[in-house]
Amino acid sequence: MRVMVRDGLFTDAEEPALLGSQCAACGSVHFPRAEACTYCATEDPDPVELSGSGTLWAWTAVTAPPPGYQGEVPYGVGVVELPEGVRVITRLTESDPGALAAGQPMALRVVTLHRDDDGNDVVTYAFAPAPS
Amino acid sequence: MSGVAITGVGMHPFGRFDGVSTTDMGVAAVRAALREAGVGKGGFQAAFCGTAYGGVATGHKVLSRLGMTGMPIVDVEAGCASGGAALMLAAAAIRAGQYDTVVVFGTEKMPKGIIRSSFFEPWQEQAGLAATPAFFGLRAQRLCLASGVTKDHLARVVVKNRRHGKANPDAMYQKETTVEEVLASRVVCEPLHLFMLCSPNEGAAALVLRRADLPSPSVNVTPIPVTLAAAVLRSHIPGPVLSESTPLAGLSHDEVPAPTTLAATDAYEEAGVGPSDLDVVECQDTDAARELLSCEELGLCEPGGSAALLSSGATALGGRLPVNPSGGLLSKGEPLGASALGQVVELVRQLRGECGPRQVEGARVALSHTVGRGANAGVVILKR
């Protein structure tokens, strides 16, 4: 079985998508889905699926396992800028910072983190370098 | 509105002290500050204690040991700015006429290793998105991209602060280092090497605040008076994705001011000074890039100008505006609840001229800055 690290963050599909929301009043886009607009406090923003393609804005790699993490190290962490006008904190499939460059195209993937005590593969969203 | 004077300061050194409790360290710092201020039992009407990991009623445990309770004792948690938050509350209460004399202290024993913060949800930990040094690394990389900062600059921040810390008996590390040694330490999260990150540790700091228009109760011990000209705490305005509020997403522009800038702007206005009036600064240097970013966000240089400011030598002892003459968190380590007040203790001693080999000559206006999880940013301005 595959289980999401948390329900409601992304779709686990061939072409996955992050599940965000958009404010009807100010147009701002949020991730994860918000119950009130982060920027203007208007309630009940509209659910939207965010673009699965973006560009790399910042990146690094974690070299020692942080508390509560059961996956492999090193692993990449970065910020990807999406066309909706949002920057998203994300895992990266590339864990060598030297292999990445500012502004390069990135595509959304679903990756396995670890196997839980019930034998399920725990999956999450990540961005991978994409052909330009 | 009354002015606020700082009439006593005390420290328990920052470091690792097995067998010494959070309460023990708080007692040592508070006792020293009370003695310096000439204040005893019944001499203060409230106490505010900053701590993040101290647990229930940390402040009460400290003051109970000293036999001084009955007044309101308030424990304050605001991440890295916990002490700054406690100081803001205490100063506001004195200004409003609620109390004449207040004790403010912070005490902390941090867990070892990467800090586990209850701030994050379990799924973020499992997904690897709760790694605090990764956020420092990402912020450092953006500073490198935006401000022309290099790894060499980052190493030289460490070298500068460790040179300052050599003369601070309250610092965890009192040994100099070199650019080569810093760059040879292992990479934690690019571009940050181990020596570029401060150590979470243990310690305590305490202040006695008093209405400035009242005579001091102490007969002959009160040193040069220091005025608390501003004590400001601000949280974040959403937008910056790498804000200390650690959101999972932000806006694709950089127009929203950082919490540090919000707090500094308010503090400069409250104190009636600007960055050019400052003589000495203690700022958040959780990592080497954070000191440079702090300089930019506090307005000590133009945006993008922090590498040039460092290279000019201005921020080293002997320069135009020494930054972190105590050695900073890079030398002292960071006990969350005590770090902000530790900065204020250093600056009070700087303004009194008590700092010996790390003294900033003729310092009259000083600024302390802490920022961290929340986001919380605290800026304090002192004058003599």
Would you kindly provide a written description of the structure presented here, covering whatever features stand out?
The complex is a heterodimer of chains A (132) and B (384). With 132 residues, chain A is mostly beta strands. Chain A has a domain at 52-129. Chain A has no helices and 9 strands. Chain A is globular and about 40 Å long. The N and C termini of chain A lie far apart (34 Å). Chain B is globular and about 55 Å long. The two termini of chain B are 19 Å apart. In chain B, helix 6 packs across helix 9 (288-297). The model of chain B has no long low-confidence stretch (mean pLDDT 95). The longest helix of chain B has 17 residues, at 336-352. Chain B folds into 2 domains: 4-113 and 201-226, Thiolase/Chalcone synthase (Peroxisomal Thiolase, Chain A, domain 1); 135-198 and 229-383, 3-Layer(aba) Sandwich (Peroxisomal Thiolase, Chain A, domain 1). Chain B has a 9-stranded mixed sheet, with helices on both faces. In chain B, helix 2 links the parallel strand 2 (46-50) and strand 3 (73-76). Chain B is an alpha/beta fold and 384 residues long. In chain B, 34% of the residues lie in helices and 20% in strands. The interface between A and B is large, with 43 and 39 residues. Strand 7 (86-92) of chain A pairs antiparallel with strand 9 (249-251) of chain B, so a sheet runs across the interface.
